[in-house]
Amino acid sequence: MPDDVIFDIMKKSDCREAALIEKDIFKKAAWSEQDFEDTLDLSYAFYVTAKRSGRLLGICGLRNLGGDGYISNVSVIANERGKGIAFGMLKYLMEYTAKVGVEAYTLEVRSKNRAARALYTKLGFEDEGIRKDFYDDPRDDAVLMWKRKGNI
Ligand SMILES: CC(C)(COP(=O)(O)OP(=O)(O)OC[C@H]1O[C@@H](n2cnc3c(N)ncnc32)[C@H](O)[C@@H]1OP(=O)(O)O)[C@@H](O)C(=O)NCCC(=O)NCCS
User: 102: which residues sit within 8 A by CB, 6+ positions away?
Assistant: First the structure.
């Protein structure tokens, strides 16, 4: 993990760059700057950034619904992958939100997204179900993963 990468809570001033990263990675399904700004207004939403010298390298976040943290928008820019940034960023997100009452974490991931599934498994998530043909473009199943208390 590069020691010049800094994790922090996302601010409104990060939303424009966050939307650019999303657009590059998720194309039509990307969140807009407004989507990020609206989400940051929610008292139960927590978003984290990874930056080097003020430049955004990655983002992730969750919504806390009754103690379950629904993680989404996990991304790291292409030329910074494989350096432990997503792992560090998600650990930061989970440590931060554990202090505000999140007890378990869950997410959906494309079954064919090997990198992301390996990342979540390394963080202690386990496969708990499949949603058949959940994704379009290209069509794929969603794997539902959970990290419940203690399963790291
Ligand atoms: C998935 C993603 C966030 C991983 O980010 P990253 O910063 O490169 O991940 P890290 O370097 O922190 O990797 C941590 C672990 O994840 C797994 N992993 C990451 N990239 C991998 C790859 N290309 N192949 C296999 N496993 C991989 C490994 O277990 C790795 O641990 P290791 O280095 O000890 O082997 C990044 O590839 C990305 O932004 N992809 C596009 C967006 C996306 O798919 N998001 C997830 C949506 S659910």
Answer: 62, 64, 67, 68, 69, 94
Query: Separation of 79 CA from ligand 1 center, angstroms?
Result: 12
Cβ–Cβ under 8 Å, residues 77 and 40 = no
Q: What residue ranges do the domains of the chain occupy?
A: 1-102, 107-152
Tokens at 58, concatenated = 């990655």
**Closest among 52, 144, 47, 55 to 104, alpha carbons compared:** 144
Q: What's residue 1's pLDDT? A: 80
List pocket residues of ligand 1, CB cut-off 6 Å: 25, 74-76, 81-87, 109, 113-116, 118-119, 122
Return the residue whose CA atom lies nearest to atom 23 of ligand 1. 115
As a whole number of angstroms, the distance between CA 43 and CA 12 comes to 14
- 50-92 pLDDT per residue, tens: 999 999 999 999 999 999 999 999 999 999 999 999 999 999 9
**Domain 1-102 falls under CATH 3.30.700.10:** no
Tokens for 34? 């407004």
pTM of the predicted model as reported, rounded to 2 decimal places: 0.97
